[in-house]
Amino acid sequence: MSSSFSYLDNQNKKFRVAVSVPPFVASTSSWMVTVNPIPSFCRIDKVTLIASGMPSSTTINLTVLNDGAGWAAASGTPAKLPFIESTGSAVMASNIAQFQWTSGFYYRDSYRTNCLYLNFGNNSFTAGDTFTVIVEGEQMAPYSIADNDTTPLIGDNTWRILRVDSSNNVYDLTQQLTRNGNPYGLGSTLENSESFTAFGAASDYLYIGSKRAWSSAMFLVPSYSQNRTAVTFATTADGSTWNTTSNIEDNTSAMMNTVSCLSYSGVIKVTSWSGAAPVKLSIDPMTVAENNYNDFTQNIARPGGFFYNPERYWLRMKFSSITPSVLKLVGLMPVR
Q1: Does domain 7-149 have CATH number 3.90.320?
Q2: What pTM, to 2 d.p., does this model score?
């Protein structure tokens, strides 16, 4: 699958994408919103912020980014500049702030995620406030063949997704959450798609593995499931000892931290696999089956064309809280 928008069919077509933001966690100087899907190449004309309550300071600053997590993790102005596409400022009136650009500005999805990242600067909103963000513009044709031919999805036949619940039951979600590159399953959009996976228990674990030291995974979260989910990330070098890692850039987080992970659709990046190594997990049903076939005392006939089960680099996500209710995932796919 290339993009949610086809440049051949939709060139010069107007678009309008709206995102509902879950309740504001706490007062902070700036906060993030991820808009997905967004055309990979487009002109942005207007961004509208609608709030449930008025801030005491009505001036809102906006930074438009091609990679919110990279920008947040960068140290110093020079390091942040490559991620900035445009900036703006508006005064909120009647709970609405509108950012408009004369002749618009050209946006290029440099990181191939079909996401637009917005950083709103204002420290006077109240915890519990909710927001709607609307982005309007016009889809444009790519200005280079390389951009047109590039797709964010990666063909990875070793990609593996497991869920372990509070009773230690293991579920293989690989097929359900990849659907051969169709993230929307039986539905035609993210919002009316088949709901493949629901996490409701704080003790649930999600394991993501690949033979390669993968760097980015796209999480598709329907807007009706947006919430504040606290996640702890860990990697392993032996399959049994898990070490918490901070080598994570999270573009699904409203606050760019792990207390609001998977607030929206977006990309979670592993910036370093230091201390990790490719292994086979003993809980993986494929490993269990392989061990049974290899145990000749069980007298199990080994099938022809035996399945491929290499050692993998694994990232473990532990859900320590899910607020306010159930977290639903529609897709989880490897991307560049």
Answers
A1: no
A2: 0.69
